[in-house]
Structure formats: structure tokens, C-alpha cells
């Protein structure tokens, strides 16, 4: 299991936000610290799954010294976020969706730090869990 540094940010009127210096653009948030940590693990795992599905490289974790050397990272509190980076077999599929649905999926995925594939996989898993209950 690899561990990446997540930076927790908190403004007076906000939730606890988490960003990842090794994965620019991946952000999540939670109402309290425990929720933020859980959300950080999920967001990072799904982002990495998306990278694997898209055939992109997964960066090696930066050290705390490397992360904190950047002035832009010093206002966050560093936490370690563990993620399994085992390569799963990835299968490329071709699906057909209405254009407006695809646009909404892409906008939602981008706003929440997912790739399209990662979001669709998470959505499918959630529906299957709900239907099984």
C-alpha cells in the first residue's frame, strides 16, 4: 500500500477540504476530520483507478519535505492517505449515452475529482449495492 500526503484545509465557514500535491486537481471535503479522511481515501482511490483505466502513470508519493518545500502547501495540515495501487485488469468498453447525459457526467466527475471512468464505476457500484439490499 502506498501512502500519499493529503493536505487538510479549513476556513472558518467551510468543511474540512483535502487536496493532494501529487495529484493536482483532486480535492474532496468532509464535515469533520474523520469524514474528511474517509473522503480523502475514497477520492484518491477512485482517481488512481481512473488513471489505471486510462493507461496513465501513477506518480510515486512525494516526501513530506518535498511537499512542504512549496509555499502554497504550508497553509495545510499534512496527513498520510493510504491507497492500494495494485493493478487490476482493465477492460475498455464502448457505450452509447445521450449527449446531455454525458456532458452532465463529465461536469460532475470533474467537479468532484473523478475521471469519467472512475465516476461511472463508482456510480455503478453504488446502484448495484442499493439494488442488492
Count of DSSP H/I helices: 4
Supply the number of structural domains.
1
Uncertain segments? none
Strands, count: 4
CATH topology: Double Stranded RNA Binding Domain
Give the percentage of residues in beta strands. Answer: 15-25%
Q: What is the helix content?
A: 40-55%
- The Cα radius of gyration reads 16 Å
What this model shows, in words?
- With 133 residues, this protein is α+β, with helices and mostly antiparallel strands.
- The chain has a single domain, classed as 2-Layer Sandwich (Double Stranded RNA Binding Domain).
- The protein contains 4 helices and 4 strands, in the order E-E-E-H-H-E-H-H.
- It has a 4-stranded antiparallel sheet with strand order 3-2-1-4, with helices on one face.
- The longest helix is centred in the first third of the chain and has 21 residues, at 33-53.
- The model has no long low-confidence stretch (mean pLDDT 88).
- Pfam families: HicB_lk_antitox.
- InterPro entries: Arc_rbn_hlx_hlx, HicB-like, Ribbon_hlx_hlx, TTHA1013/TTHA0281-like.
Amino acid at each position: 500500500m502506498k501512502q500519499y500526503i493529503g493536505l487538510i484545509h479549513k476556513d472558518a465557514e467551510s468543511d474540512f477540504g483535502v487536496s493532494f500535491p501529487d495529484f493536482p486537481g483532486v480535492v474532496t471535503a468532509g464535515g469533520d476530520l474523520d469524514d474528511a479522511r474517509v473522503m480523502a481515501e475514497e477520492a484518491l482511490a477512485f482517481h488512481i483507478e481512473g488513471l489505471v483505466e486510462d493507461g496513465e502513470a501513477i506518480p510515486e508519493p512525494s516526501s513530506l519535505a518535498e511537499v512542504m518545500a512549496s509555499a502554497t502547501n504550508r497553509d495545510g495540515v499534512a496527513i498520510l492517505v493510504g491507497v492500494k495501487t495494485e493493478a487490476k485488469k482493465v477492460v475498455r468498453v464502448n457505450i452509447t449515452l445521450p449527449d446531455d447525459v454525458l456532458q452532465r457526467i463529465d461536469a460532475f466527475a470533474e467537479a468532484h475529482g473523478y475521471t469519467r471512468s472512475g465516476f461511472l464505476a463508482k456510480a455503478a457500484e453504488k446502484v448495484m449495492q442499493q439494488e442488492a439490499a
